[in-house]
Amino acid sequence: MPRKVSYGLDYFAMALHFAANYLLNLLIFLFWFTHYSLEQMLHLSLVRMAVSMESGNVQFVHMTMMKVHFVVTYVALFMSILPLMANKKMRCCSEGRPEYRRGESNSKGKEAQVLSSDNEMLVPSVHGSKVSSDCESESSHSRENMNLTAPLSSNLNQLKLGKHPIRNKKVNSETKYQPEEWMLMEKEPEILKQLNLAIVGHVDSGKSTLSGRLLHLLGKVSKKEMHKYEKEAKEKGKGSFAYAWAMDESTEERERGVTMTVAVAYFDSKKYHVVLLDSPGHKDFVPNMISGAAQADAAVLVVDASTGSFEAGMDGYGIGQTREHAQLVRSFGVEQIIVAVNKMDVVGYSKERFDFIKSQLGAFLRSCGFKDSSIIWVPLSAVENQNLVTTSADVRLSSWCQGVCLLDAIDSLQTPLRDVSKSLILPICDVVKTSMGQVAACGKLETGAIRNGSKVLVMPIGALAAVRSIERDSISCNLARAGDHIAVTLQAIETGHVLAGGVLCHPDYPVQVATCLELKILVLDIPTPILVGSQVEFHIHHAKVAGRVSKMVALLDQKTGKVSKTAPRILKGKQSAIIEVRLDGAVCAEEFSKSKALGRTFLRSSGTTIAVGIVTRIVERKS
Ligand code: GTP
Ligand code: MG
Fold this sequence. Notes:
Layout: H1 7-35, H2 38-55, H3 60-92, E1 114-115, E2 121-123, E3 125-126, E4 146-147, E5 166-167, H4 181-184, E6 193-200, H5 207-217, H6 223-235, H7 251-256, E7 263-268, E8 272-278, H8 286-293, E9 298-304, H9 309-313, H10 321-331, E10 336-342, H11 351-368, E11 375-379, H12 395-398, H13 406-411, E12 425-427, E13 430-433, E14 439-444, E15 449-451, E16 455-459, E17 463-472, E18 475-477, E19 479-481, E20 485-491, E21 503-505, E22 512-523, E23 530-531, E24 535-540, E25 543-556, E26 563-566, E27 570-571, E28 576-589, E29 600-605, E30 608-621
Parallel strand pairs: 6-8, 6-9, 9-10, 10-11
Antiparallel strand pairs: 1-2, 2-5, 3-4, 7-8, 12-21, 13-14, 14-20, 15-19, 16-17, 16-21, 17-18, 17-20, 22-28, 22-30, 23-27, 24-25, 24-29, 25-26, 25-28, 29-30
Helix pairs in contact: 1-3
Guanosine-5'-triphosphate is lined by residues 203-209, 240-241, 244, 257-259, 280-282, 342-343, 345-346, 381-383.
Keywords: Cytoplasm, GTP-binding, Membrane, Nucleotide-binding, Transmembrane, Transmembrane helix
Subcellular location: Cytoplasm
Function: This protein promotes the GTP-dependent binding of aminoacyl-tRNA to the A-site of ribosomes during protein biosynthesis.
């Protein structure tokens, strides 16, 4: 039975219905618009239209009104979309997105890319990141949300927290870098050249004792402090470690009598302002030792002269850290080495013992690539203070040793070359959060120069930051040049973006971020051969990431360096080869020919260094 319609009342009701519906629709679409993407909105519109159609097929008049209603609604929708379209486009760039971090790929879809006014490719920046100051912290591999709130501005003042862009594209890499005048200026008042000196060697060889004693003799550790260390060490039954306590500051290090992290101290010799990097000798802390070695201009290799101890340090297969440390420092480009033959008091300052050590270790150091002329041998005793800052007064030593003391040996080292003509590269060794809530990146400036106010690019994330202040030996300075060991406090950057293992570089000359690299390696003494698929721990500057050998390109002739066999199946100890390594994450890297600091690498497995090498090609970059 057809329904009776009262047209006058119905039209009024329908007009009301129409107006209410129109307003409701508008509100609904505005709500959708602020909460959904365009695609989602279209989908919801279609669903809504279908539902409305179904309810509107009862009567012809109603149908007609519904059609009018649809037309008006969608015209209104379209009208409201137009002005919002522009906003939406901008808003797209600020929606939460995953951040990529060192050692991790961005798997949650593409990052929106927009062109800034100066035609640089930008991607969103991050908000609400956590601070991580530990390069080995797994938190550095976590994902966090990103927000772009403002485009890049070349004006430093506009680089406010949370309003910085992230760059992920090479900008000016092909253009020749031209250093500015202030970077090259060398006519500063007579200040001592900085020398980064790594103290390395087998566990318990006396590195910290030697370092502490040296600092005490040079007035860097006061008598009062020394007295305190002696008293406390004695109380804990560790009397012999009193000098080592000047370097080993943590409770665990002191209790165990083992250095765990690199201790940094400073002293002045006649020629140098020395940055002393006392490394751990224990096998378990080799990755930490590497941090020190990576910054070294020269090294002091401390060996224990006592019977059996020197031999233990020379053991193969990663057991003897004298060997491993020597190989590592050489692979980091250290050419000058002082061998401090310590604990000579234990062997009665025996010349025979010293000569034996010199011949054994000398042959090994030559095999690592150290030239005889770059090795200085110093027999000494840290505990008995013989041959440290003055030549030995003990006749048992002075009768046959006319060589230099340790301090003079340091002064006889050649001034390391500083490359200020290249663009800024500062591999980040450590990250410290300042009391003001800002973040400071610490490390050795490898190339270029930096000053307060400089803009820097923090890689591998690709975020811009501004240099707020620079500290050298905890003293603030206006600028620093290649070779300086500094702490750079950054502003206008999320603290979580600055991670140990990353790199600070010039914004227009970003370093590469690689996920697969071709390496030329020298395989060390290893018990099991390297195969395609072998899992490795890939180390480069201060970064460490897991990876696997993905390809064996060629075996090289040791003498000529030429290819002796293509695609070898296995690699054994002492062989040289070209291989490809695919990483589980991404690291800042450059071909060795372009940057020595970012092109030196080594591979570790089962707690032992299995190969040292250089980057010959970046096979795959992180886009
Ligand atoms: P790690 O950092 O753990 O590798 O040890 P280390 O090389 O720093 O050795 P450390 O300075 O902790 O000294 C280890 C032990 O060797 C301590 O008991 C020292 O007293 C002792 N020692 C260091 N130098 C000498 C020395 O010249 N003569 C004698 N007799 N003992 C020494
Ligand atoms: Mg130590």
